[in-house]
Amino acid sequence: MKRKSILVLVSILLILTVITGCSSNSSGESNDKGVVTLNFWYGWAGSEGELMEDLISEFNKTHDKIKVKGLSESDYQKQLTAISGGNPPDIASQFGDAVVPWGVKGAMTPLDDYIKKDNVDLDDFIPGALEQTQYEGKTYAIPIAMHIPMLLYNKDLLKKADLNGPPQTISDLKEYADKLTVVDKSGRIERLGFQATPSVYSMAFAFGGQFWDPDTKEVTPDNEGVKEAVKLGADTWKKYGEKNINRFQSGLGKSFTAQDPFFVGKLAMAIEDEYVPTFIKKYAPKLNYGIAPIPYDENKPDLKNPGDVRTSVFYIPKGASHPDQAWTFLNWLVSKDQMVKFTAGLGNLPTRKSALSDSAYDNIPGFKEYLEYSKSENLHSFPALPISSEYTTELTKEIDAIDRGKLTIDAGLKKVKEEIQPLVKDK
Amino acid sequence: MAFTVSEASKRKHSKKEWHKFWLGLAFSSPFIIGFLGLTVFPFIESFYYSLTDYDLFNSPNWVGFQNYLDIFHDDAFYKSIINTMFMAFIGTPVSLIISLLIALLLNMKVKGVSIYRAIYYLPSVIPVVASSILWMWVFNPQYGIIDTFLRAVHLPDPSWFLDPNFTKPALIIMGLWGTGGGALIYLAALQGIPKELYEAASIDGATMWHRFRFITLAALSPITLFQLIMGLIGSFQIFTESFILAGNSAQGGPDQSMLFYAVNLYQEAFVNLHMGYASALAWILFVIVMLITLIIFKTSLRWVYYGGE
């Protein structure tokens, strides 16, 4: 009898330890001295993660009331689980496009009170980068780094085709793309002048397109500018044929390696982000290339220097144990000095205007042009909406169908609107 | 549990029996608790969620059967069902036939047959992620071994994973690589067929085809039933291959030709955060798989032979 009860007791104890082990109160403990421990999940890994760890230890050295424990966790899905499970980190990194969808669902703590309290100058942030973190007057996250695209062009190939300097306008771009494309007798593409499916976001901004009308609260994939941008890609597909483009693309090497199509001259012009020149220096140091603004619509000269902005941000998850201390750390991370240190180390662009002229970026290839371009007023991000992820998914899907000739441009974009608009009304 | 109910219930349980009962329960409790907490509870919970509008962060909002109604107006649902059915009803039989053929070959009395058996089984050990990346290169239209061969013999060379018409056939061919596992099960069953049956049939003048048709196939039919059902269930859950081969777009590759049921479900649940809708999708999948399994069981009475009654 005794032995039985002992056995049962032991097994129950074992199970209990397992269960409690799963749901430990890991999120922040404060000890007797009043030191608060913050859990911080960031998405950078490897040498980029070490950069973050350096900043963390610097913070810990200079702040004796707060101790930050960093964790490199590039699976962003885990944040979802942790927040919905009520056991989130105190502060975490995310991509800018997730901010509003998550924020309006209540997964992120609005930072406006903190911003007001500490007089954070949001005007110092690049508007295109900040756009993605705000919705209906609330700021859910602060951007630390951003990507913007410019046009890279292969100088040798342009010269061979008797083209002087980069294309300025979209008509130039089309003409250049035609002249630089090489097709053999059987229709097989040997080189493309320009990407077959250029970023619809950057190109839509180049045509003055908008994806959202804030006044009528309508998604506008059927907007003229967006249409033009889609047409640019669709025309290329139509001209050379789906099969030939598939075949050409399948033979291309992986991006940002020594076999990158632009690096090896299989692509003469490409819209690429600011970190690409660093890869070129590493993998194709002999490539003779130039960096130019993305061409604009010649009928709309005020749209010069367009492009889409994507950001990395920090936020305080809903249900964080120590939001006040988390804010102190967050605010420290995105202040100018730390931002410069981190972004220069990563080779990303800073999101503060005051950081753009810092000498820390002097030795990063291409940054002279990209930092200058960051000041452009025509940089935008994809509209920050609760339904952004459904919207971009649907756009990608229908543009693929349009490129393959399954749908006309009008029909495809109309379908996007029909699918997405009802979702807007729900909220 | 540890005693038979019918017998034990007739008389009063002795102390010893109770002791054994509790002991058995104690030892199996890790599983029972895990099963209740990690399988049964989420199972029931997901049905509740399927009747709500739930985004993971806010508390679920009761909407009744709205999610189920919405699903029947959703293009992605139909597209994913058609794609998945293709894999299930074309892919599964093809792989069954191939694994049976392999098993027949491996059952022959040749030198070094155990080495062949190991070789055929080997691919089944390789994780899907690794093999998918490998096959991506095998199917590469420019450099891949398959198209290089096809061009050499002047046959059409499809673009495989880039051509909407060829993505699923390519996936099925890729799946054949892993049929060694199924072949092994067939092989075990083949070796269990009594030799006397073949001898008796030969004496009665049965041809080789007749022996195969009426002895081998008939004797293997219970195994075929098992493999068919497991294969179908596996096809209905296909996810990893598409997720890797369709690139990070996760929209099922060219013209959504690899948008499978589970991929669509994942997209709704974790990208669009429509957990309620995704739960409803999961329940519909459950019902579909249940129905198909039931139908196969019913018809199996006609073609499955359980020997030795």
Automatic annotation (TrEMBL), chain A:
CDD domains attached to this UniProt entry: PBP2_UgpB (cd14748)
InterPro entries xref list: Bact_solute-bd_prot1, SBP
Alphabetized PANTHER family for the sequence: ARABINOSE-BINDING PROTEIN-RELATED, DIACETYLCHITOBIOSE BINDING PROTEIN DASA
Protein name: Sugar ABC transporter substrate-binding protein
Organism for this UniProt entry: Pullulanibacillus pueri
From TrEMBL, chain B:
Topological type in the membrane: Multi-pass membrane protein
Record carries keyword Protein biosynthesis: no
CDD domains for the chain: TM_PBP2
Subcellular location(s) per record: Cell membrane
Top-rank taxon: Bacteria
UniProt keyword list: Cell membrane, Membrane, Transmembrane, Transmembrane helix, Transport
Domain ABC transmembrane type-1: 81-296
Residues passing through the membrane, by range: 21-44, 85-106, 118-138, 170-193, 214-239, 275-297
Example of a GO biological process term: transmembrane transport
PROSITE patterns: ABC_TM1
Pfam family name, one: BPD_transp_1
First-listed, main subcellular location of the protein, grouped into a coarse class: membrane
GO cellular component: plasma membrane
InterPro entries for this protein: ABC_transporter_permease (IPR051393), MetI-like (IPR000515), MetI-like_sf (IPR035906)
Family from the record: Belongs to the binding-protein-dependent transport system permease family.
Entry protein name: Spermidine/putrescine ABC transporter permease
